[in-house]
TrEMBL record:
Keywords noted in UniProt: Kinase, Transferase
Domain Carbohydrate kinase PfkB positions: 17-314
Domain of life, per lineage: Bacteria
Protein name (record): D-glycero-beta-D-manno-heptose-7-phosphate kinase
Coiled coil: none
Record field: transmembrane: none
GO MF annotation, one: kinase activity
Entries under InterPro entries matching the protein: PfkB_dom, RfaE_dom_I, Ribokinase-like
PANTHER family in alphabetical order: BIFUNCTIONAL PROTEIN HLDE (PTHR46969:SF1)
Pfam families cross-referenced by the UniProt entry: PfkB
Organism in which the protein naturally occurs: Mucilaginibacter sabulilitoris
Length: 335
């Protein structure tokens, strides 16, 4: 990363506008202590000390983008319920545009409740509906997307496999974005990547890529290239950016690949790192950097957030600091 680029990202000439379409959810945390087992069953009795709610799913991508400095419009479908209203409040607090969110009476807002004693998670309770959207709701969402898509720099799809991204709706979004000259960056889920056909970037992790290519595992660069070729045939995407957890990431096109290893760092928790990578790539592409530069910066962003417990965000200033510090460290090998 040269000095001119580092100077530019500190004072970019524009604030990127990014449309995030995705599975919006609430992460609900219950903290307590446990000193005895229940007489009713061999389970701990948790005395609750505190509770909190934060944005989860695509909301974590939104938080990462806002932390970096983007102006974000959020689109999705949530329940017209208490947690849905809480989700809207959290997004409003982030300063995002929320008119593109549909509140649906017949849908439940996705909530993931985690019960923790100290730093140990005892159980996670999921409340969700993963049915595909009815056609009238898909149409209503597309109308809202079309009303704003010309005003944004990039479109990000954050798929958590909660029923939003049916193959038909996903293709409608990608085709609409391409018709408007907008690049689409996708964090995929599931084993069928054909619905992402035509995307500019698809960003799977190693496990997701292996499942999409229908191979057991990826342990070598050759295996990764083979799996990528399968996905390129399925999707005709311009690029795959494959994240490898604490080992870094690889940018692949049908003709080339660039490995970006993570600098040596202490890893506490990789939760949410994929969302950080997605957001960071989108942000830096949005201010005019090329893909390799954007991914290099996203690599540093991921190295920062995996040092923290739970989902975390970072800033441009922290990324620049990490770049300076990483020059003194050894590089971990890829695969």
């Amino acid at each position: 990363m040269n000095a001119a680029t580092l100077n530019y990202i500190q004072q970019p000439t524009k604030k990127p506008t990014i449309l995030v379409i995705g599975d919006l959810m609430i992460d609900h945390y219950i903290w307590g202590n446990a000193t005895r087992l229940s007489p009713e069953a061999p389970v701990p009795v948790v005395n609750v000390n505190s509770e909190s709610t934060t944005l989860g799913g695509a909301g974590n991508v939104v938080q990462n983008l806002v932390s970096l400095g983007a102006q974000v419009t959020v689109a999705g479908v949530i329940g017209n319920d208490g947690m849905g209203h809480q989700l809207i409040r959290l997004l409003t607090d982030e300063g995002t545009e929320i008119d593109t969110i549909i509140k649906e009476d017949n849908r439940t807002t996705t909530v993931k409740t985690r019960v923790l004693v100290g730093s140990h998670q005892l159980v996670r309770l999921d409340k969700e509906v993963t049915d595909v959207l009815p056609l009238d709701i898909e149409d209503a969402l597309m109308d809202k997307i079309m009303a704003c898509i010309n005003e944004v720099d990039l479109v990000v799809l954050s798929d958590y496999n909660k029923g939003l991204f049916s193959p038909v709706l996903t293709q409608r979004i990608i085709e609409a974005a391409k018709d408007c000259g907008k690049r689409v960056i996708i964090d995929p889920k599931g084993t069928d990547f054909t619905k992402y056909r035509g995307a500019y970037i698809i960003k799977p992790n190693r496990k997701e890529l292996a499942e999409a290519a229908k191979i057991d595992r990826i342990n070598t660069m050759e295996g990764l290239k083979h799996a990528a070729n399968v996905v390129f045939e399925q999707t005709a995407a311009d690029y795959l950016v494959v994240t490898l957890s604490e080992q870094g990431m690889v940018i692949l096109s049908e003709d080339d690949q660039i490995a970006l290893p993570v600098k040596a760092t202490e890893v506490f928790d990789v939760t949410g790192a994929g969302d950080t990578v997605l957001a960071t790539i989108a942000y830096f592409l949005g201010i005019g950097l090329n893909l390799e530069e954007s991914c290099e910066l996203a690599n540093h962003a991921a190295a920062i957030v995996i040092r923290h417990m739970g989902s975390a965000t970072t800033t441009v200033a922290e990324i620049i600091k990490d770049i300076a510090e990483s020059k003194k460290q050894q590089v971990k090998p890829l695969l």
